[in-house]
TrEMBL record:
EC code: 2.2.1.2
One GO cellular component term noted in the UniProt record for this chain: cytoplasm
GO molecular function: aldehyde-lyase activity; transaldolase activity
UniProt organism field: Dissulfuribacter thermophilus
Catalysis: reaction(s): D-sedoheptulose 7-phosphate + D-glyceraldehyde 3-phosphate = D-erythrose 4-phosphate + beta-D-fructose 6-phosphate
Presence of keyword Chaperone: no
Chief localization: cytoplasm
Keywords: Cytoplasm, Pentose shunt, Schiff base, Transferase
EC main group: transferase
Family: Belongs to the transaldolase family. Type 3B subfamily.
Name of the encoding gene: tal
Protein's recorded name: Probable transaldolase
Any GO BP annotation: pentose-phosphate shunt
Length: 215
């Protein structure tokens, strides 16, 4: 299972990279806006920092506009992946971009049929959003289960990025279901290694070690 980090913040990416936990990065317009920097400059910086796919999202809503933005963004670095919103215009753009060999990540997926359409259009990745479904009392992880099954049924190469992750349980469930990738906010990545029994156990080992006469 691959771990992407869901952020446009360079310090967060650097820290998670030191832990060996960054196989790729996903950004979106809201994450970029938080950084208050030039969009293209930041994407270039992230691409230099990370040896893996970096998703940059288009903001056009018509297929032609998305395609033009995608061509420009993909010229920034070899590892740029174009994030396309899940609309019929987005599906049209995804089809064209996939024929041009430009990698895409179809985002804002909230139903298994949306994921199926994106895969049929040749998307490299789909991003089903689990947290936002949970937020409205739907079962986010049930969506992942269905998408995994559909892609398995038909042997699609499209990889599933579990997105909108809010807590470590989402990561655990994604791994159990066999999702290809989880894109995880820095805060949740930092929580993954934590267990109170590990802390208590280590404290005791170190205390007992002090009693060893010859080290
Ligand atoms: C994924 O690619 C999205 O950027 C992200 O996971 C959305 O998460 P949010 O629902 O916490 O905004």
């Amino acid at each position: 299972m691959k771990f992407f980090i869901d952020t446009a913040n360079l310090d967060e990416i650097k820290k998670a990279k030191e832990w060996g936990l960054v196989d790729g990065v996903t950004t979106n317009p809201s994450l970029i806006a938080k950084e208050n920097v030039s969009f293209k400059e930041r994407i270039k910086e992230i691409c230099e920092l990370v040896n893996g796919p970096v998703s940059a999202e288009v903001v056009s809503t018509d297929a032609q506009g998305m395609i033009e933005e995608a061509r420009e963004l993909s010229s920034l670095a070899d590892n740029v992946v174009i994030k396309i919103p899940m609309t019929m215009e987005g599906i049209k753009a995804t089809k064209t971009l996939s024929q041009e060999g430009i990698r895409t990540n179809v985002t804002l997926i909230f139903s298994p049929l949306q994921a199926l359409l994106a895969a049929k259009a040749g998307a490299t990745y789909v991003s089903p959003f689990v947290g936002r479904l949970d937020d409205i009392s739907h079962d986010g992880m049930a969506l992942i289960e269905q998408v995994v099954q559909i892609f398995d049924n038909y042997g699609f190469d499209t990889e599933i990025i579990v997105a909108s992750i809010r807590n470590p349980i989402h990561v655990l469930d994604a791994a159990i279901m066999g999702a290809d990738i989880a894109t995880i906010p820095f805060k949740v990545i930092s929580q993954l290694a934590k267990h109170p029994l590990t802390d208590i156990g280590l404290e005791k080992f170190l205390k007992d070690w002090e009693k060893v006469p010859e080290k």
